[in-house]
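Work Package 3 committed the consortium to producing structural models of liganded targets before the mid-term review. Because experimental data for this complex are still outstanding, the team generated a predictive model from sequence and the ligand definition alone, so that downstream docking and mutagenesis planning could proceed in parallel. The input record is reproduced below exactly as it was submitted to the modelling pipeline, together with the SMILES string for uridine-5'-diphosphate.
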Amino acid sequence: MLTLIVPAYNEAENVEQVLDVVVKMPDFQQIVVIDDGSVDGTYDRINKYQVESIRFDYNRGKGAAIWAGVKCARHPYVMLLDADLIGLRETHLRSLIEPVVYGDAAMSLGLFGTGRFATDWAQRVAPNLSGQRVVRREVLESLPMIEHTRYGVEVALTRHVRHAGLKVVAVPLDELTHRMKEEKLGLVPGVMARMKMYWDIMRVLIRS
Ligand SMILES: O=c1ccn([C@@H]2O[C@H](COP(=O)(O)OP(=O)(O)O)[C@@H](O)[C@H]2O)c(=O)[nH]1
Ligand SMILES: O=C(O)[C@@H](COP(=O)(O)O)O[C@H]1O[C@H](CO)[C@@H](O)[C@H](O)[C@H]1O
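The resulting structure, written out as tokens with the ligand in place, is given here.
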């Protein structure tokens, strides 16, 4: 019924915290983890687990990683989850699954709350950026140019769903956060990566 897709780029320090939780859950009939050209040993960490793994030989961007997962998804519902979550619990994931798999929503959108001020605040200001979602697979399959969107993938997906008049349900994810770019990369490279991310998002907004 449900395929989990986890894109991961240089997440060797983080991905196990996420996979430790999801592999125990019977809710996922398929788990696909995409190593998007990492150079830090992420692929070896992924392969410690009983999951399907895909490895890109260079970094193609989050949209392309997700698309690779969608192409091999065998189930009608897909969960998208980032590889750098901190504090992930099964209850978070079940609350994302419920409105789509057992309800009438086309997509659920997970929003950090009571995790950390900076990441709670970022998602309050820009909820459409959230990487934690459950969505009908057919919606992802009909998203134009998904493999070229890089970090614009979430904005493109949210616009696509709303444009089609489909129902979206926001789900609070309490006590959950992620590692911010500045924490992973250091201040200056982190800020530069953030700017590149905003540019990917702008490109999608300009195009649509
Ligand atoms: O080129 C990229 C950039 C990011 N990611 C993955 O997409 C998710 C969200 O990216 P990131 O952590 O950079 O975003 P943030 O958590 O900082 O918002 C993470 O699992 C990344 O490993 C990816 O697969 N390819
Ligand atoms: O919340 C945000 O402002 C950005 C950046 O997060 P950080 O500043 O690195 O905590 O993160 C989100 O946006 C990306 C683009 O849509 C998504 O790919 C990430 O999954 C999401 O966490």
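Reviewers should note the following from the model. The chain has a mean pLDDT of 96. These observations will guide the Year 2 experiments.
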